[in-house]
Amino acid sequence: MAKRIVILGAGESGAGAAVLAKKKGFDVFVSDMSVIKDIYKELLVSKNIQWEEEHHTEELILNADEVIKSPGIPNDAPMILKLKAKGIPVISEIEFAGRYTNAKMICITGSNGKTTTTSLIYHIFKSAGLNVGLAGNIGQSLALQVAECNYDYYVIELSSFQLDNMYDFRANIAVLMNITPDHLDRYDHKMQNYVDAKFRIIQNQTDEDAFIFWNDDPIIQQELHKYGIHARLYPFSAIKEEGVKAYAEDHKVYFTEPMAFNMEQEELALTGTHNLYNSLAAGISANLAGIRKECIRAALSDFKGVEHRLEKVTRVRGIDFINDSKATNVNSCWYALQSMTTKTILILGGKDKGNDYTEIESLVKEKCSGLVYLGLHNEKLHDFFDKMGLPVADVQSMKDAVDAAYQMAKKGETVLLSPCCASFDLFKSYEDRGDQFKECVRNL
């Protein structure tokens, strides 16, 4: 009898896992509580994989030998609890895909900066001519690529939710950008649970592997000693400190190991302090992979950036519009505000994940000349920000948000969409939110 694998959730990761499982000869069944997108339905049908949508049929799921679950399904969802009670292993798509490839894995996590860093590492590897795939939270699912491609390297962005259900997977290069409170609603509102999830990126590493991290993150520094780390350590910092392997000094960026080289800081394609960290982490990763320093320099200087992350949209009558829809937590918004060089109208709001806005309080006072609350439930924003005395507007659609911000802004100011929140109250995704913003701005 073929082993039975059930996949819960038929998005990018679930559909990819189904294709790989089918290819490896398993008895495969896919179940999704929502409607499955046509693109994934067509993929499942073309591979002759059974699926169901808008419900879970228990008898078809609880007979699994192993279950692969979408990162979006919480570990305390009713079906997951039933599987656990029966002792059926629940794993992530990344864990499953990792069993079937010998490619080198470069894995990136962190509360902020991971998409930019992942995209930047992929850009350097690709520019250097390496046979490399991009996976995880961006790009195609790792499982689908393992099933259909034959890459030597994968650059993988990992969320804490993906890491939660990873057990034997091994990262050859693990990158931890930072740890700030995020998604605490999924971790019993305990910061330690979230920290432990992030540190799972180094589990199974050996002394042949590398662990790259931001040296000045207070939480990383406080936690490092708790986990028996076997990998070689590659800390980076914005300044030269004892033991760091990459840093900036006198307008130059220095990489010390394994090959020492440097470049002018102004040549970096990405600007701002947070992007310096992204460039340092990416440069170390490429250096460890043996990519020539000339290639690393060139790729760090011609990278185009990531959509929905501090993306300049256009200038309308002297007002700049910036799309930072990817800022789904407060710390991301903090980075965005910190990088603003003009007075700013901030559009924020959405599905709040237990946010504490005190982190951006002083930056809002310093940088903002108006606030637009975009969400179905803006009471928390009113309670926190209204006392600052800035002009505010309450809106429930992107068009109204852009119109309100445009009315408030003066020539020479910037309108910044950096919501601090998830998008699911009014939009399909942060991409949908950012796309609507860009469209409304271009229609002004």
Write the layout of secondary structure elements.
Layout: E1 4-8, H1 12-23, E2 27-32, H2 38-46, E3 50-53, H3 58-61, E4 66-69, H4 78-85, E5 90-91, H5 93-98, E6 104-109, H6 114-127, E7 132-136, H7 142-148, E8 153-157, H8 160-164, E9 173-176, H9 191-199, E10 210-214, H10 218-223, E11 232-236, E12 246-249, E13 252-255, E14 261-264, H11 273-288, H12 293-302, E15 311-316, E16 319-323, H13 330-338, E17 344-348, H14 358-367, E18 368-374, H15 379-385, E19 392-395, H16 398-408, E20 414-417, H17 430-442
Parallel strand pairs: 1-2, 1-4, 2-3, 4-5, 6-8, 6-9, 7-8, 9-10, 10-11, 16-20, 17-18, 17-20, 18-19
Antiparallel strand pairs: 12-13, 13-14, 15-16
Helix pairs in contact: 1-2, 1-7, 6-11, 6-12, 11-12, 13-14, 16-17
